[in-house]
Amino acid sequence: MCVDSWPTFTTAICYRQKQHFRSSSISGVIPDICTVFTKNPETLRSLLLNERVVKWRSGLIFRGIPRSHCHLIKDLAVLRGLDITEYGGYNTFIYHNQQNMDRQEKVLPLPISTLDESHAELVDTHLPYGGNQESLSHVRACIRHLPNHCVTDETGRPVSWMLSDELCELRMAYTLPEYRRAGHLLALSLALMRRMGSAGLPIYCHINQQNQATINAVTSLGFSACPSMEEMSVLLICKDRV
């Protein structure tokens, strides 16, 4: 994490330490992933221009960025001749009651397990921004290093899954159509929430504003929307033009 000053700061940039994701079993390049907090756009601009802080040349993914900051990031990306892809329209939901996780997972006919790297392509296939080497490499890294859970069928094939990423967000949740309405994601959510909570990690997610079904589901689990937080762009991808 890099801040503009210490101990009092107005801007912070959080980015992944790449050495934690190096593995001979993970192919392809995984772009740097950043998120930012700021009360002062000028100090944010100054940090983003510092090549020792932000490595624009290797490609960047900005996650969980308030819309009000996106124009600055886009302007700097354009100046560097980078292409931009944005996935926006999300709100933040946080689970505050980590001492109140006394719900019992629903008893399922299929076992709860964990993903392995051989399942990365299946997960990536069902991501709205998947289908490229960067996305696939990132999914593999998340599976290898970070908490996840899945429900498998009798052959061991995942039919429902939920992952976490390097910013501790619950995400990439999906259930194959023929296995829906069986409570799989509810059980996976509770299991992963317990796991994250026991490790002392925050429990939160971003949900598309149009996805009312998922909003209702996480609200029923005890998540609260953050009314003071503006609309988020969960993915802002800046990479070299082909």
Please supply descriptive tags for the structure shown above.
alpha+beta; eight-stranded mixed sheet; 12 strands; 26% helix; 30% strand
How would you characterize this protein structure?
This protein is of the alpha+beta class and 242 residues long. The radius of gyration is 18 Å and the shape is globular. It has six helices and twelve strands. The strands form two sheets. Strands 1, 2, 3, 4, 5, 10, 11 and 12 form an eight-stranded mixed β-sheet that branches. The chain has a four-stranded antiparallel β-sheet with strand order 6-7-8-9, covered by helices on one side. Strand 8 and strand 9 form a beta hairpin.
The helix content, as a percent range, equals: 25-40%
Question: What is the general shape?
Answer: globular
Number of strands: 12
Compute the CA-based radius of gyration: 18 Å
Portion in strands = 25-35%
Helix segment count? Answer: 6
pLDDT averaged residue by residue:
82
Low-confidence stretches: 19-28
Largest sheet: 8 strands, mixed
In short:
By secondary structure, the protein is of the alpha+beta class. 26% of the residues lie in helices and 30% in strands.
Q: Secondary structure elements and their pairing?
A:
Elements: E1 2-3, E2 11-15, E3 32-38, H1 41-48, E4 60-66, H2 67-79, E5 82-95, E6 112-113, H3 120-125, H4 133-145, E7 148-152, E8 158-164, E9 170-175, H5 184-198, E10 204-208, H6 212-220, E11 223-225, E12 232-240
Parallel strand pairs: 3-4
Antiparallel strand pairs: 1-2, 2-3, 4-12, 5-10, 5-11, 5-12, 6-7, 7-8, 8-9
